[in-house]
Specification:
CATH superfamily: Cysteine protease Prp
Helix content: 40-55%
Structural class: alpha+beta
Shape: globular
CATH topology: Alpha-Beta Plaits
Order of helices and strands: EEHEEHE
């Protein structure tokens, strides 16, 4: 199962980190559409933040694992764009989880 966790600041509810762990096991490796979907959404969002906002996220990625802490920017507009892209990622991943609940879970953690 793929477990996705978003960490939020309790005050403003901004996403401060996210992690993706595990394998969907929906199908054989190379044919797993659930794993491919989660990978496309998460890696695509990290790449989009870099390309559209100009902020390189400190992301760690290994087989079946992706984690990033979201750096706070001095520019409020950049922070807002990063949060919008992260919230979009969350919505997409929750959609995948809704369709494949045996293979993907999404949870939030407040700090």
């Amino acid at each position: 199962m793929i477990q996705i966790t978003f960490t939020r600041r309790s005050g403003d509810r901004h996403i401060t980190a996210f992690s993706v762990e595990g394998h969907a096991r929906y199908a054989k490796a190379g044919k797993d559409i659930v794993c491919a979907g989660v990978s496309a959404v998460t890696v695509g969002t990290v790449n989009s933040i870099e390309a559209l906002v100009g902020v390189e996220l400190p992301a760690s990625m290994k087989d079946g694992w992706l984690q990033s802490d979201i750096p706070e920017q001095h520019d409020p507009a950049a922070n807002a764009r990063i949060q919008l892209l992260l919230e979009s990622m969350r919505v997409m991943l929750e959609g995948i989880s809704d369709s494949y609940s045996k293979n993907v879970t999404v949870k939030e953690h407040l700090v």
